[in-house]
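Purpose: get a first structural picture of the assembly so the mutagenesis plan has something to point at.
Setup: two entries, given in the order below. No constraints added.
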Amino acid sequence: MPKQSPIPDELDKPFYDAANEDCLVLQYCATDERWQYPPEPVCAQCGSPDRLSWRQVNGDGAIYSYGVVYDTPVASLQPDQPFNVAVIELDEAPGVVFLSHLPGSAIDEVPIGGRVKLIFEKTLATGQKVPEWQIV
Amino acid sequence: MYAPTVSQSSAGLYRTTDGLGVWPYRGKVAVTGVGHSPTLRRWDGDPQTTIGAWSILAIRKAIADAGVSPEDVDGLVFDAETSTGSVWPEGEPVPADFLAAFQGTTDPLDGFAKLSPEWLLKNMPELKNVKYVLLAPMCISNVMAAAMEAVGRGLTNVCVALKGWHNFPGRYYQNGPHMEPTISGYGKHGDFGEGYAGAPSYVTAMQFQRYLHKYGKTHDMMAPFVVNSRANGLLFPEGYWAQHRPTPITAEEYNESRWIAKPANLLDNDMPVQAAAAYVFTTAERAKDMQQPPVYVLGHAGGGTVQGDSYSSIKLRSTVETLEEAQFNAASTGRRLYESAGVSASDIQFENCYDGFALFHVFWVEGLGFAGVKEGECLDFFQTDISIHGPNPVSPSGGNIGGGRTRCWGWTDTIQQLQGRAGARQMKIDARIGVVGGPMPFWSNLAVFSKDPVCREGLKSVSPLVSLVSQVSAAARARKPQNSSPQHWLHSATRRCAVGTVTRKLCGRCRHMHPLVSTNTSAVNTAPSSARDTPPP
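Result (structure tokens, whole complex):
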């Protein structure tokens, strides 16, 4: 899928740098034992940045739900319509969800609860890699 | 010109936390006048149909409808943003005939693609005595809640509440960052489906897909709601469909409608339009002298985050709002609303909650426990008589689905139903109390409006509920839905009080003077996290 290339900023640079090394890292607050994504300057639960750090997760997970997009305003995605967009739950990071195009999946054949594995996909405009998931 | 005080923030006026008790101004604030502009699909190039012109028109009609002199108006609450997602092309000059037709400000887009207090008051010289101006964010529901609270607190005595929406030619959201090969800001992580889906209805569709999976339902069970909404909308003289394409839809047409973000189809998506609506709020005392019967505010409550001057959405746990978060947010806002209004769910006769997108109307109906509907049951409930002729009218306004994207229809209709002047939309039931508001569970303001300044007991007779159950049973037999036992809807007339005794409803309090415990919702608590302000659709 020709996704728009994300432009990293100061806050999420570690996430995107790791993605370019085929690693998925998330913020983790050691005080609250809580994973956080998207990245934020502080832990959204305790409000402190002190014990917030980046930690790697293996990316194993399951499909929470999905939709099939037939009419998107995002120009770069339009040639591939219709396409699946799933919400992925991660085994290691309860509460955190990612969006995924489920590369290789058939349109509207998406098992809710089905297992997925992490891969990395290069985006077109800048070559920035992003995490993606495939049905296993 | 007299320069009023302009407050940029309505955040301090919202009731978003639990345990605030009954609204201190319960029954002491009323809404009387209503004014609408016509509705256009897109702006047609006429200076007199710009959002500025139509906002003036709506305000004038509301004031005339209330039967007050413009000089009596001392408060004005509105949203300075008027975009539906439509933007005036950068670099393209604002038409000269518009600029010539109105008193301008330093911003040529003022009155054209946005509204400022200065522009409105310059072009409405008859509003000589406006001393209190308040800007509320994003939605008529935030405007209305702020206006009623402001009147309650005595900040204004006769207050106009306004919301305008412009919609320029061009395809919806197909502009700006969506055209770029790269993405920055909140959307790059997929917040609200940006970057990955883009379709504004994607997150609702994804939640609804989970809902269908969780409760064993099917998308076609939404058809009666959408068909009913269009039918009601066609009875709204100011609505888009009534004015421009006055044809009802059938369940077959709904089911065959093209997908936008499956399971949200074209008819599940509300249509962006150009329109404005205004309302006159005042004190219950002052309302007695006005032209229209007062509709009393029993209470209001919202779901959102108040932080300093900002009123933003409830913090999501992660990238997108899950179904369970939406259900929790709707239910907790419902509980706050009923506590504020001093009523219980079973007191509510009709609901006009937001519906743009149609699919999440389900979450409001269930979260509010309307007609005793519990989580997972709303689609079965939609197979019963939800029309204006039946015992449990759902969205008698037709909402955004029936009128176009203003979010105002429900407010207008709730007022007019309770005033007995909803015309062809007037419900068969003796309308005395209803719930209205929106937009979405993660960011909202809702209110309970009543024909009476206090809640009257015994509004709902038993017979409609009995008839409801028989209809539901027929629907259940036809569909064999999972996880559904419609018979308990009958029990919505009785409540279990906090000390554990089944009791008759007494306006939200049992005879032990404890709040009645809602058995209508079971919510999953999700710890809040990141704050991102994106306009809900």
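The first strand of chain A starts at residue 5 and ends at 6.
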